[in-house]
Write a structure and sequence with these properties.
The protein is of the alpha/beta class. Helices cover 25% and strands 19% of the residues. It has a six-stranded mixed beta sheet, with helices on one face. The radius of gyration is 12 Å and the shape is globular. The mean pLDDT is 94.
């Protein structure tokens, strides 16, 4: 999987998923092309569309991001409604 973001919640999720994480995705152009936890940070346009991208962020923010970027990457996984 990929993980959206490269900050605290993304780092936590990567620690939980360990070797199952292939890359991070970030909208911050200064982070794209860098690495985080030894994995590449990609722009959404660079991500393989067949690999799901988990979004460890508030649901309302994830929905807004998905409405902007979901047509570029159709497998962005939004947190369920019952997540705080």
């Amino acid at each position: 999987v990929g993980i959206f973001g490269s900050s605290i919640s993304a780092t936590w999720l990567a620690a939980v998923l360990q070797e199952r994480v292939a890359f991070f995705v970030d909208e911050d152009s200064s982070r794209v092309g860098q690495s985080h936890l030894g994995l590449p940070i990609l722009a959404i346009e660079q991500t393989p569309v067949e690999i799901p991208v988990l979004m460890p962020i508030r649901r309302d923010i994830a929905l807004a991001i998905n409405s902007r970027l979901g047509s570029i990457h159709p497998k962005m996984i939004i947190p369920p409604e019952n997540c705080a």
